[in-house]
Amino acid sequence: MNRLLTAAAILVSFLASSAFSQNATLVFQDDFNRTESQETKDEPGNGWKTNSKNRAAGNKQVDLKDGAMYIACHPVADHGVSVVHDAPFRDGKLEIRFMLENEKDTLGLNFADLKYKQVHAGHLFKVTIGTKSTELADWKTGLMDLEIRKARQSNKLSDAQQEMLKTKRQRFKHPLETGKWYSAVVTVNGQQLSLDIDGKRVGSLSSPGIAHPTKRTIRLAVNKKAVVDDLKIWSHKSGAPLNVLLIAGGCCHDYENQTEILKQGIESRINAKVTVIYNPNRRTDTRFKIYESDDWAEGYDVILHDECCADVSDPVYVQRILAAHRNGTPAVNLHCAVHSYRWGNFRKPVNIGDDNASWYEMLGVQSSHHDHHAPIEITFDKDQKENPLIVGMQSWTTGNEELYNSVRVFDSTNVLASGKQTRKNGKPWSAAVVWTNEFGPNKTKTFTTSLGHYNETVKDDRYMELVIRGLLWTTGNLTEDGKPVKAMAK
């Protein structure tokens, strides 16, 4: 019976792999069926590297025998064994056969990008398989984030950081027999990470760090012992579009036409699908039915806020909107979204944590009013000319527009462009018009421009370029030269 079950599992895995391979590119594979020229030092071959020289005084920790790779941490090692190979992909699958010979053995599958300097040693996320349980962890926005790691090492993690870290990993009970071979499949799709063993789902984790645009390196991480064989890494080439939710409506703007301008402009420029939720109500207290559900943002990669709801002041309703962003769903905010969801004395600078501060904390800038409609001179920050969001972009002057004031710019905000306008009284004034922010315990990326009152502005290729880059940047799909990653390009 056991042989039949094993054969069935292998058949299921083979069929799944065959179907997947029709829509994917094989990035790397290794059957480890080779010999070494000596037996005193690591000689993994096929482009693999190990950390034995630096961490185990050069002692052998990786051995090729019987057509498999045997990994064992040497007694003098001051760190677990790391066996490393380049295997760049964005979304895809890793397939591997493995065996754990002892009850305390584990096999870690560590995905990394050494070019990404905001985390320790390029760590992005990890799957750790043990004999009793398995753990899936987002390290990019969790333990290996430099700020979090520093606070943790000095025992200075805040309560909020500790609560956030709990959301960055999931542990699943899944007992395995020692000395037995298993087949594992790790699937990466956007923010979703999942693990199957012998054709059965063990568990999954959804977290922003998993969506990092390029997983450049795979590390086999072993603290005691593990045996691996038949490794394959696939890059999925389905061309799945960026799933954008555009929410628009409320006071004072031609949202009926602007939603069409935005949808067509986005979908014609990048590989994206824009779903539009439009409420034709033109009141300042306009509400949206979609926000009545706790899981309103489920299934979308990014939210494009284009509502104008200044007099919606229900904290429960607003916190439900913000919960999606606190939990990691990025936001791009346009024009009157900056003047939405406000109550109390919003003309006075709020403090973080105030009852009426949450929406501003997500935006990164608090604004209360605008002057008359007149052209705005837009100037990009020269010190940030290499920032992917504005690289290559030139200053310009809009047609008639609304310049929103800046009551408070939060410390987490990075202002990329300012606008200068002549007031109705003839005096010049200026304010931030393009900025980024990181919001909540997950440091969710948000991008905002306060421009966009008139259709003529929204139609402008320069404005549309800002919106496009904002969508790409918040979702990790913008290259260093301000272009969409290959999967998003048209």
TrEMBL record:
Coiled-coil ranges from the UniProt annotation: 143-170
Domain of life of the source: Bacteria
Keyword NAD attributed: no
Biased amino acid composition, Basic and acidic residues: 35-44
Signal peptide positions (record): 1-21
Annotated region (Disordered), positions in chain: 35-57
Domain annotation ThuA-like: ranges: 246-474
SUPFAM superfamilies the UniProt entry points to: Class I glutamine amidotransferase-like, Concanavalin A-like lectins/glucanases
Annotated InterPro entries: Class_I_gatase-like (IPR029062), ConA-like_dom_sf (IPR013320), ThuA-like (IPR029010)
One Pfam family this sequence matches: ThuA
Alphabetized UniProt keyword annotations: Coiled coil, Signal
Name assigned to this protein: Trehalose utilization
Organism: Mariniblastus fucicola
